[in-house]
Design a protein that fits this description.
heterodimer; A: 63 residues; mainly alpha; B: Glutaredoxin; 8-stranded mixed beta sheet; 14 helices; 24 strands; 26% helix; globular
Chain lengths: 63, 560
């Protein structure tokens, strides 16, 4: 995984921004929006292993 | 607030009856009171006790003939207990209350977060205790009844308030007729539906938040330890949230969220309550018989007055602000209001400080309210997501929290903390670069001392000067300075903290240097402490004049 973490205040602010963005795009386009966001954020990952680890964690949490 | 149809009384608490006592005003007397407090709830009585501690007589007006009943606060934070200790009533609280340090959050039946509040043998009080509000009120009222300078006027209903430059006129209804009461100052602690606030034409401003919660108290035997339990999307309330707290006398507080479109009348019917509570108790794995004590409904608000002072009328507690229950800040912030305005009003009323000292009440306590709002809005949005976006993210965070610490940060219920009066007009600049210790504006920590007492045991009723000594002696100029910090008959107390005992003067021994360390102190350091335990100045090295100037400023003498 990626070692570097957002500071708590930034993380909480980003959480609110993302919630508001999901609401703006609406339920019908929510999946597309989240997929595009995942791709955009993926470019900031340091390597493929970090992306793989994040994908695995998300899959586990979605079971 | 409702009880089961067949029963009007509590299962476990005998509510006292407070008789009406005919006031002298009904027989033509026109006594002028120094301070009138409206509301004999915990905030009003705490304010009265603090005023009495500083020598000011108080009359408390309340329309009831007993204590408050029903949906009320149960969680008292450590910093509130420290304030109650100064009023001489904390021991009754700790003898009855249930202390707790932990909490667990569950998502779809699985534990996802463990709350651990710092606690050790160096602390006098638990970080949080649970106690029903009627006990809180009983202990405070009984303490106040023993105080000759506090007069209770039960069954006295405030009808109107007229505030003038020279005083306050209150029109009051009693079982034997109406009368007018005159006071120099009035403290409004009459709750969310404050009559005083309405009489002065003032309104709370702010926001209402998503989510309605039914609050139920249940009597049930269980050995489950005292901790906060939060259940998200759980079998006992699918898709919604449940909170469970243990209280004394085998009483359990259950808060459960209603569905968005759920009819409130139907939801509050006794049969519905029994069905919903049974499902939650089954989820908890409890099998003992249980009885309903009472139930009510709750919605979260972040509302406050623009100004907590209107001339000679000051507002405290729910009369000044409404905060969500999540994080247990309602009663705790109300008690902090009472302790803050109590000493200030006492010193002004007795002529020991200028009236502008009261101007510091709003920036300090409304500042605390706005800080609470910022924290409570986050907690409330997590407990009751206001939109689909928030709901999706909240559930994602809960699912990831099982394995990932970063997501657990969002689950922290942000429990009540003492507020630091940073930027208060009463605080001096924290100029000496301490590496640790309570900053200017923060509360003093109640650390255990070597003689098994705690630091707050050594504070005086007025200001306190802590002086850290290398050899157990305090220089003559420090002692002379401390003598000059008296406010009326509230002499400042000098507490000399030393690594070694002195030959001729009492010291608070700190052989292992713990008190030095937690205050970032060296030989010659000093802290000036207000009557409400907040630091108003500190210096790494004693310098002539600094303490005196900070003291003058803390009394409103140097407010820009």
């Amino acid at each position: 995984m990626i070692d570097q973490q957002l500071p708590s205040a930034d993380f909480e602010a980003a959480y609110e921004l993302l919630a508001a963005a999901i609401d703006r795009v609406g339920r019908e386009r929510e999946s597309e929006f989240l997929a595009r966001l995942a791709l955009l954020l993926m470019q900031f990952a340091p390597d493929e292993a970090a992306v793989s680890a994040a994908l695995a964690a998300a899959e586990v949490a979605s079971r | 607030m409702s009880r089961p149809g067949s029963r009007a009384h509590s299962l476990y608490f005998d509510y006292p009856h407070f008789a009406f006592v005919r006031p002298p005003e009904l027989d033509g007397g026109r006594p002028r009171h120094t301070v009138a407090v409206v509301g004999a709830g915990p905030v009003g009585v705490t304010a009265a006790l603090e005023l009495a501690r500083h020598g000011v007589p108080v009359v408390i007006l309340d329309d009831k003939a007993t204590l408050n009943d029903g949906s009320r606060a149960i969680c008292i934070a450590r910093h509130s207990l420290e304030g109650l200790q100064q009023l001489g009533v904390a021991e009754r609280f700790t003898a009855k209350a249930l202390g707790w340090t932990h909490g667990t959050s569950y998502f779809r039946g699985q534990p996802v977060f463990r709350l651990e509040m710092p606690h050790s043998a160096d602390e006098r009080f638990h970080p949080m205790v649970n106690l029903q509000q009627q006990y809180i009120e009983q202990f405070l009222v009984e303490r106040a009844q023993a105080e000759p300078s506090i007069e209770f006027r039960w069954q006295n209903r405030v009808l109107d308030v007229q505030a003038h430059e020279q005083g306050v006129e209150v029109r009051i209804a009693t079982p034997q007729g109406e009368y007018h009461l005159t006071a120099d100052y009035l403290l409004a602690a009459d709750g969310a539906r404050s009559v005083v606030r309405q009489a002065l034409g003032l309104k709370l401003a702010g926001a209402a938040h998503e989510g309605r919660y039914v609050i139920v108290d249940v009597k049930m035997r269980s050995d489950y330890p005292t901790e906060r339990r939060a259940f998200f999307d759980c079998p006992g309330n699918p898709g919604a949230t449940v909170l469970v707290h243990r209280q004394p006398d085998d009483i359990w507080r259950i808060d459960y969220q209603l569905d968005e479109g759920e009819d409130e009348t139907l939801a509050l019917a006794e049969s519905t309550i029994r069905t919903r509570v049974a499902a939650i108790i089954a989820m908890l794995g409890e099998t003992a018989p249980w009885e309903l004590e009472w139930w009510s409904v709750y919605k979260a608000y972040t509302l406050c007055l623009d100004d907590y002072r209107h001339g000679r009328v000051m507002f405290c507690g729910d009369a000044a602000h409404l905060v969500p229950i999540f994080g247990v800040r309602g009663l705790n912030s109300g008690l902090a209001d009472a302790l803050n305005i109590g000493w200030k009003l006492a010193y002004v009323a007795r002529g020991f400080a200028p009236e502008r000292l009261l101007d510091s009440y709003t920036p300090e306590r409304r500042g605390a309210t706005l800080d609470i709002f910022a924290q409570a809005i986050k907690s409330t949005r997590f407990m009751s997501p206001p939109s689909r976006g928030h709901r999706l993210l909240r559930d994602a965070a809960l699912a990831l929290a099982v394995e990932h610490a970063f997501a657990r940060r969002l689950l922290d219920p942000r429990q009540s903390q003492p507020y630091t009066y940073a930027g208060s007009p009463l605080s001096s600049v924290d100029e000496d670069g301490f590496a640790s210790g309570p900053v200017v504006g923060a509360t003093l920590a109640n650390r255990r001392c070597e003689d098994v007492s705690f630091l707050l045991d050594h504070l005086g009723p007025g200001f306190t000067l802590l002086y850290f000594s290398g050899d157990g002696e305090a220089p003559d100029e420090v002692r002379a300075c401390s003598r000059g910090l008296a406010v009326g008959d509230d002499a400042a107390r000098l507490v000399v903290i030393a690594r070694h005992a002195a030959a001729n003067a009492p010291v608070l021994l700190d052989g292992d240097g713990r008190l030095f360390a937690v205050h970032g102190a060296q030989a010659g350091s000093c802290y000036l402490i207000r009557p409400d335990r907040h630091v108003c100045g500190r210096w790494r090295q004693w310098r002539a004049g600094c303490v005196e100037r900070a003291f003058e400023r803390a009394l409103g003498g140097d407010i820009l």
